[in-house]
């Protein structure tokens, strides 16, 4: 009989420690039955009571999800190409760009993509052994073991994807400007902010952190930086592929700028005349020597001429100038204070109706939250949900306690922002041009007193810095800078450079006239001497 050693029996003073199992009941060696649960014996499992079996799991190595080396570089370019396609898709299907727009951008990206092949080959592959991190100091290799430093690769940025889209529209002669693209990005019409959440999770998990940081800009996109990025891409295509870009579609842009500024259409022929005099072609330069100048941006060239033409026809000061006929454009007078009020109402058309305004959500601060109405809070949370929440993540139990309402994109009956803006712009132009008044006309008599009559264009005021701007001129300069997408100081410098060009042209004209008169007087004198000799 097989016994099992346990504790002392204790019944009737029994000190036995050995026990046996019989018919499912435990008995000590002296025959005392033990209290407890009965155990049913299985003939097939004889002798297996009390044994525990555990299956040992095979030790699996933890595979690193993050790619390194050339594999990571190629994955980043694939992700960047996916983002570029999403941006083109949004422009074609949401903003009404033609279908060929995607093909043009794809060809531009294909050319640029070929330049990264050599860059990828220059990069070293990572070591097969995993990198170990320790708090102990490592040994410093000597000069003999030092490896040559590899130049840090320059990869495309998120701002470059918007620049590629602009160049695609630019080559197709579409009437869009850099400022329009900046506005579309700020409004969320083009994927840019938090674009990482649109990348598939498996691709996102395999990207190294340094590439994730490229796809997540830490600062808001500035329109002037977008101008610079577009110019840099033009230089790249010119230097790498000898590609020459045409001039901007400036007749349409000129009309759009004049309409947005709500100034009389008489500025249009004046700008064309100034463009012919200065020989401006409104093209991006293929090469830049020295420091980049504001007038090297074609759209800024156009806006600078608009400002100059406006100052000639409708000056900001209150000096009296008298045209000679009623057909002159300068016979009209602009009330610039009233114009500034109209522009302010146009810019605040959405906030005046109790809304934050599309594109203004990203500029909301902590202080603004305390002053928001319930409707504005709902508008801001809808924007936050559609822009920042990652739908690819599985919902947590805690998140289920706070269900989300329908987002702004899914709500029916939302009016189009473009339609509202177009109607507001037409109304602003009608009000601005309707308040024009006429000046007193003093006909030209050709007498000596004619030179004492101040004419349009005389006493032209120049502003070298922002501090030199008149109170009436500052709102116009600020609005023009916002429309073209540059800072106020950049526009002031661009206008001053255009005015200097005009001054040099006038000096050359006066010099040519003076030389012509001198040459004519000399010929007349020579002919008179010949007559005396005869």
UniProtKB/TrEMBL annotation:
UniProt superkingdom: Eukaryota
Annotated spans, Disordered: 123-147, 436-464
| InterPro entries xrefs | Rrn7_cyclin_C, Rrn7_cyclin_N, TAF1B/Rrn7, TF_Rrn7_Zf
Q: Which terms in the Gene Ontology molecular function aspect does this entry carry?
A: RNA polymerase I core promoter sequence-specific DNA binding; translation initiation factor activity; zinc ion binding
User: Could you provide one GO biological process annotation from this protein's UniProt record?
Assistant: nucleolar large rRNA transcription by RNA polymerase I
One GO CC term on file: RNA polymerase I core factor complex
Record protein name field: RNA polymerase I-specific transcription initiation factor Rrn7
Q: Which organism is it from?
A: Aspergillus ellipticus CBS 707.79
């Amino acid at each position: 009989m097989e016994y099992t050693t346990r504790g002392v029996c204790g019944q009737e003073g029994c000190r036995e420690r050995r026990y046996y199992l019989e018919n499912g009941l435990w008995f000590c060696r002296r025959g005392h039955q033990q209290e407890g649960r009965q155990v049913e014996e299985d003939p097939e499992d004889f002798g297996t009571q009390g044994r525990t079996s555990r299956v040992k799991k095979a030790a699996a190595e933890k595979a690193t999800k993050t790619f390194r080396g050339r594999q990571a570089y190629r994955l980043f370019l694939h992700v960047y190409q996916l983002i570029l396609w999403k941006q083109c898709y949004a422009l074609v299907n949401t903003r009404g760009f033609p279908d060929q727009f995607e093909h043009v951008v794809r060809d531009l990206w294909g050319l640029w993509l070929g330049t990264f092949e050599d860059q990828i080959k220059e990069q070293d592959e990572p070591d097969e052994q995993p990198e170990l991190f320790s708090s102990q100091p490592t040994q410093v290799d000597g000069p003999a073991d030092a490896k040559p430093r590899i130049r840090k690769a320059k990869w495309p940025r998120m701002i470059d994807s918007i620049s590629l889209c602009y160049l695609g529209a630019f080559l197709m002669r579409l009437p869009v400007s850099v400022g329009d693209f900046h506005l579309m990005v700020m409004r969320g019409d083009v994927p840019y902010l938090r674009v990482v959440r649109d990348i598939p999770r498996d691709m996102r998990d395999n990207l190294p952190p340094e590439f994730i940081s490229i796809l997540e800009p830490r600062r808001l996109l500035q329109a002037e930086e977008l101008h610079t990025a577009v110019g840099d891409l033009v230089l790249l295509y010119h230097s790498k592929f000898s590609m020459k870009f045409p001039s901007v579609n400036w007749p349409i842009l000129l009309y759009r700028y004049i309409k947005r500024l709500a100034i009389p259409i008489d500025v249009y022929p004046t700008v064309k005349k100034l463009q012919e005099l200065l020989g401006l072609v409104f093209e991006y330069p293929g090469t830049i020597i020295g420091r980049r100048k504001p007038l090297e941006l074609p759209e800024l060239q156009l806006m600078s001429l608009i400002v100059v033409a406006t100052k000639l026809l409708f000056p900001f000061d209150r000096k009296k100038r008298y045209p000679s006929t009623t057909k002159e454009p300068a016979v009209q007078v602009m009330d610039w204070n009233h114009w500034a009020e109209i522009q302010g109402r146009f810019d605040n058309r959405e906030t005046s109706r109790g809304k934050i305004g599309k594109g203004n959500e990203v500029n909301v601060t902590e202080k603004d939250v305390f002053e928001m109405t319930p409707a504005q809070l709902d508008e801001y949370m809808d924007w936050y949900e559609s822009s920042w929440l990652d739908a690819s993540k599985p919902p947590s139990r805690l998140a289920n306690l706070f269900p989300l309402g329908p987002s702004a994109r899914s709500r029916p009956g939302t009016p189009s922002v473009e339609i509202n803006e177009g109607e507001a712009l037409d109304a602003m132009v009608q009000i601005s041009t309707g308040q024009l008044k006429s000046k007193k006309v003093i006909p030209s008599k050709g007498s000596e007193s004619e030179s004492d009559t101040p004419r349009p264009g005389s006493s032209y005021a120049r502003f070298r810095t922002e501090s030199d701007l008149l109170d009436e001129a500052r709102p116009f300069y600020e609005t023009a800078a916002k429309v073209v997408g540059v800072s106020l100081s950049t526009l002031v410098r661009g206008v001053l450079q255009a005015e200097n060009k005009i001054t040099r042209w006038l000096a050359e004209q006066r010099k040519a006239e003076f030389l012509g008169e001198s040459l004519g007087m000399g010929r007349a004198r020579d002919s008179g001497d010949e007559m005396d000799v005869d």
